[in-house]
Design a protein that fits this description.
Blueprint lengths: L16 E3 L2 E3 L18 E4 L2 E4 H8 L14 E4 L2 E4 L35
Antiparallel strand pairs: 1-2, 3-4, 5-6
């Protein structure tokens, strides 16, 4: 049996890691960015690459258009931009815009943009 990454055979007593029915040397099962072992760590997959959570947040996560921080977990997309759920709010009333009627006029909700509303 050989390592999926380097192709070298495993020694009889050598430790093997298994992921998706493939076997790896512990040092071969590593983050594509920082090259540190992923053994026992959470990671993300992008194509054939495996990326540790730290590198993913620094280098690959979508960035919130409002606070400019990486988006982990749930996020919203509007107008081609990404927002944390807590950042996707009406600029006038401050209510979250998720599951609300919104318009493309500025950064306010539909209710705040109604023609009969006064500023």
């Amino acid at each position: 049996m050989a390592c999926e990454k380097c192709g070298k055979a495993f020694a009889i007593t050598e430790k093997k890691l298994e992921f998706n029915d493939k076997h790896y040397h512990p040092n071969c099962f590593a983050c594509a960015d920082c090259k540190l072992s992923l053994a026992g760590k959470q990671f993300h997959e992008q194509g054939d690459d495996k990326i540790c959570s730290d590198c993913f947040m620094k280098n690959h996560a979508k960035v919130c258009a409002k606070c400019h921080q990486p988006c982990a977990g749930a996020y919203s997309m509007f107008g081609g931009q990404t927002f944390h759920m807590d950042c996707f709010v009406c600029a006038k009333c401050g209510k979250q815009l998720v599951k609300r009627r919104i318009t493309t006029k500025g950064d306010a909700c539909f209710d705040c943009n109604e023609p009969d509303k006064e500023d």
